[in-house]
Amino acid sequence: MAAPALLALCRFGQGLGLGGEWGGAVLLAVENAPPGKQAWYGMFPQLGAPIGFFCSAGLFLLLTALIGDQAFFAWGWRVPFLVSTVLVVLGLWVRLRLTETPAFVQALVRQERERVPVAAVLTRHARALITGIFAGLATFVLFYLMTVFVLSWATSQLGYPRQTFLLLQMIGVLFFAAAIPMSARLADRFGGRAMLIAATLLIFLFGMGFAQLFVAGSLARSLLFLAVGLGAMGLTYGPLGAVLAHLYPTAVRYTGASLAFNVAGILGASPAPYLATWLARGHGLAAVGHYLAAAAIVSLVALWLAPRPAA
Q1: Which UniProt keywords apply (predicted)?
Q2: Closest Cα partner for 277 from 268, 288, 286, 267?
């Protein structure tokens, strides 16, 4: 019982880390960016998602190839956790050398710091918070469908070997990674909100064609499915940080952007694999696509209603 309990504790710590540090990482990038390059700078923390997924899946495939499934399930699964301690040490070294951004220093000079930032966000910036949460909803629904659900469904219902489909996902994640800087460039040129609207429209269209692309027996079509879906994920994920950050003034930007991003993750990601499995079993894969398309519609409405960027 100790092993799953410790694993759950690790996941809890991961949630605390992401909840507290994503906003800081994005703001560190965005608020140090030169004019006209906020989205480009803000996309670098977002690259952590595809890079992390690629490394974790690659390590899983490498271990199972080297030691076999039996040894992996007996003790090999601990190796990725041990390897990750290197990243913990590196992350701590970086954080101990960080300084406040110029924008936040100026806010302190002007005595604009909020005593209870959460209360300020909830009372004075509720519209930005609510629309920001739902603007990111489709992003997280898509990500967990394309990583957790499709892997489970492909290996349990479509007959793909786990190693084969993981390799396909790793190739698809390259499209995810490539689309992030592409979307950031477009966001700096045409506006972050416009880029998110275009990417969310693509997610809607992808949802409507979900069942036609995700089929058994065709590696080429499955790879196309993963490339388009994860590519759309990159297009929406790249500018998301900068867009959420600019919904709030400097004094509450960290808290507001972090709340919006992480609550969107909870609402979008947490139920997605389970709800998608229930829909697929009861109503077919087309229903999963309609679920994704509905999330895209919600995000489009939120982007339309979101307040203009704060100063």
Answers
A1: Cell membrane, Membrane, Transmembrane, Transmembrane helix, Transport
A2: 288
* Cα angle, residue 65 at apex, residues 59 and 67 outer, rounded to 5°: 95
User: In this structure, what CATH number is given to the domain that contains residue 135?
Assistant: 1.20.1250.20
Report pLDDT for 176. Answer: 94
Query: Would 5 be classed as within a structural domain?
Result: no
In a domain, 2, yes or no: no
Pick from 121, 67, 143, 70: nearest CA to 295: 143
Q: pLDDT tens digit string along 77-86?
A: 888 888 888 8
The answer to whether the beta carbons of residues 244 and 257 sit under 8 Å apart is yes
Question: By residue range, what is the domain housing residue 33?
Answer: 13-305
- Inside any domain, residue 4: no
pLDDT per residue over 182-192, tens digit each? 999 999 999 99
110 within domain boundaries: yes
Q: Could you tell me which residues come within 8 angstroms of residue 154 by beta carbon, excluding any fewer than 6 positions away? A: 160, 165, 214, 222
Q: How many domains does the chain have?
A: 1
pTM of the model: 0.85
Q: What pLDDT does 12 receive?
A: 86
